[in-house]
Amino acid sequence: FFAKDHLDFYHEYVNVEQMYLAGIKEVRTKLEILDDEFHHRFDHNPIHHMEWRLKSPHSVVEKMKRRNLPVDVSSIKGNIEDIAGIRVICHYIKDIYRMSDLLLRQDDIHLLKVKDYIKNPKENGYRSLHLVVEVPVYLANEKVMVPVEIQIRTIAMDFWATLEHHLRYKNNKEISDDIRNRLYECAKNITDIDYEMEDIHNEVFGHHKI
Ligand code: 0O2
What we know:
The structure is a single chain. By secondary structure, the chain is of the alpha+beta class. The chain has one domain: Beta Polymerase, domain 2. The protein has 5 helices and 5 strands; from the N terminus they run αβαβαβββαα. A 5-stranded mixed sheet has the order 1-2-5-4-3. Helix 4 (about 155-170) packs antiparallel against helix 5. The radius of gyration is 19 Å and the shape is flat. Ligand 0O2 binds near residues 82, 122 and 164. One of its GO terms (molecular function) is kinase activity. This is GTP pyrophosphokinase. Keywords: Kinase, Transferase. Pathway: Purine metabolism; ppGpp biosynthesis; ppGpp from GTP: step 1/2.
């Protein structure tokens, strides 16, 4: 259901959604090409799998209201950067930085923002590399630069983040300090395992020179 007072927004939003979807396709293709090249050259796929989503119109309106922005499509640009979102789940930590570096090296990709929650994990233990990039999308009559949020993480980081997200959002009660601490301990243990698995991989297969 959509609030009646934002009907104009919802009607207009349908038109811009296509552009964000195209941005997702462009970035996904770039990442798939890199992953294929690694598979071909090194018999190693850095990417385990990818997920993507468009932010729902309702979530966009809620975010605009939270930020005291006027609820119209023109205020999305420059304010809401996570309408198009891709999550890239990698095998190893080194794969995260390799994919990120190779993507950002491409001359049609423009980096808008980077948040490295692997080097600087969030207080609750959340780890992932977040990038916001702009990618060109060629429409019939114009070229549009579309922002896409990319979250890159290992399988282990994704395991923790998915369960933590579920525990936090699907639960009506406030998370207690005890649960918070236990989740943080889990994040620490998972981090140790991530580094140990990477060491094992390096010992068995060595480093790829690229
Ligand atoms: P959803 O449903 O995944 O989209 P901003 O989005 O810019 O207003 P912020 O905090 O500056 O907010 O962005 P940031 O830090 O880059 O994080 C945005 C997204 O990262 C979140 O999106 C989550 O997907 C993920 N994330 C960040 N912190 C956590 C965390 O502590 N736990 C988990 N599980 N995920 C996290 P949304 O919009 O919150 O949700």
